[in-house]
Amino acid sequence: xxxxxxxxxxxxxxxxxxxxxxxxxxxxxxxxxxxxxxxxxxxxxxxxxxxxxxxxxxxxxxxxxxxxxxxxxxxxxxxxxxxxxxxxxxxxxxxxxxxxxxxxxxxxxxxxxxxxxxxxxxxxxxxxxxxxxxxxxxxxxxxxxxxxxxxxxxxxxxxxxxxxxxxxxxxxxxxxxxxxxxxxxxxxxxxxxxxxxxxxxxxxxxxxxxxxxxxxxxxxxxxxxxxxxxxxxxxxxxxxxxxxxxxxxxxxxxxxxxxxxxxxxxxxxxxxxxxxxxxxxxxxxxxxxxxxxxxxxxxxxxxxxxxxxxxxxxxxxxxxxxxxxxxxxxxxxxxxxxxxxxxxxxxxxxxxxxxxxxxxxxxxxxxxxxxxxxxxxxxxxxxxxxxxxx
Length: 390
What we know:
There is one protein chain. This protein folds into 2 domains: 5-202, Hypothetical protein af1432 (Orthogonal Bundle); 218-389. The protein is 72% helix and 0% strand. Helix 1 (5-20) packs parallel to helix 3, helix 4 packs antiparallel against helix 5 (94-105) and helix 11 (218-266) packs parallel to helix 15. The protein starts with a helix and ends with a helix. It is rod-shaped. By secondary structure, the protein is mainly α. It is built from 15 helices and no strands.
């Protein structure tokens, strides 16, 4: 590690921000920078980074927002330039400078981290989502946007915008999810609309998924797993019952058809019960086959369907015709978006249950037809024999 580089960088950044930042930078200032630095080090140490990597991470955190002195949107590129120039002047190794600038670039909202250092810095930069003072910090950010971007929101618009950001955001490291997940969910709950809060006070309701996300509730996960396993077991049971009906009716048809001409030549009155029996078997076979017939599958899911949560990439029928690149991109979209991931689990359980319900409906019809048909055949046969006897 370079001797004293952290202290020199800290002094440089603190002095630069204090001198160059405008008073309207209510949120992105030295206080925010130092908080990100401390949270990055906390995550880095828990992850088990080496001393050299921790130094690179800390320097990236110190310089990640210095670009605000020149630009608001696109400040990351400015931050990269300032960091690179200063560190090279200090004789810092060029290879480490490149890692620092790459980590700073990863803090852009539209960039995805490519390595652990970038992921840790990205998580640390948004650790404020879990802060107990988050609503106060949010007010500072809102004022900052009004000044530098000219974006003015009323209270309800700002609340909806913030909640949408919360839903779409997900921490990249497991350490960050453990550290900041509970606080983030608490802040998300605090931003509920006044109407929802009033209704909740008047009448108890079952918590929605915003309160108990699937990814963070062990009890919800257990319930989903149990329900899925039960559906799969019931599906296997239904298929076995359908196979039994197919076998029984196939045997009856195989035996009856060759024997029918011989017996009908001797007694044409047997035509009615024989026909009833064959119709019963044929219709039962049709319903049993429908109950076991695979559903129609497209095998392709569009990017828009994935983002909107209208498809489930965990089901093979939605991706078997996609190439590996398309599937990997789509799966990353699902995994990195907590809301889409929850929707996938919910959709999977729903359609598994819907298919199971349709299967049992067809199977019930099959058994009913077989029962009525066999009973009718016996009764008709007995009635004909009684009449012939008379």
